[in-house]
Amino acid sequence: MIKGSCCCKAVQFELNERPDMLGMCHCSRCRKVGASALAFVKANTLRITSGRNLIAVYKATAQYQYSRCFCSVCGTALGELLSSSASFVINAHCIDSDIVMENAFHEFVADKPSWLAIGDSAQQFAAHPIKQ
User: Fold this and answer.
1) In total, how many domains does the chain have?
2) Which of 15, 42, 112, 115 makes an SS bond possible with 26, Cβ 3.0 to 4.6 Å?
3) Residue whose C-alpha is closest to residue 102's, from 119, 114, 90, 85
């Protein structure tokens, strides 16, 4: 069982299998909400074990389509933890277990700040990989 949580441990979850993929998003929104390291998971593999009532949702506004979840106690970005989609992203930094995976890609590289140097050999996309 793969365990995960927010910073204060009020929100906790389990995955019964590894994420499908890891990726890094460099768009300004993901950077500002603190969830640039993304773990792609299937909904049927994730179970929230505590703190569901403490999850707040930041609704997506025009240009963005994905709402983001946060712990209402400590503010940890949780990704799309409450998504009703069959698969979605969660903040990879919230995974407490060692999942032994490598980053697969960087998206919105054209938007990354100049002070950030990408230090791995994962594939890079100027914008969203599917929309290129």
Assistant:
1) 1
2) 112
3) 119
Whole-model pTM: value is 0.89
* Rounded-to-integer distance, Cα 67 and Cα 80, Å: 7
Kindly report the CATH number assigned to the domain that includes residue 104. 2.170.150.70
pLDDT over 90 (residue 66) = no
**Secondary structure letter of residue 95 according to DSSP:** B
Residue 39, amino acid: A
Measured CA distances, 57 to 1, 42, 52, 76, 77 (Å): 26, 19, 11, 12, 10
Residues 6+ apart with CB under 8 A from 116: 26
Encode pLDDT of 25-39 as tens digits.
998 888 888 879 999
Closest CA to 81 of 25, 13, 8: 13
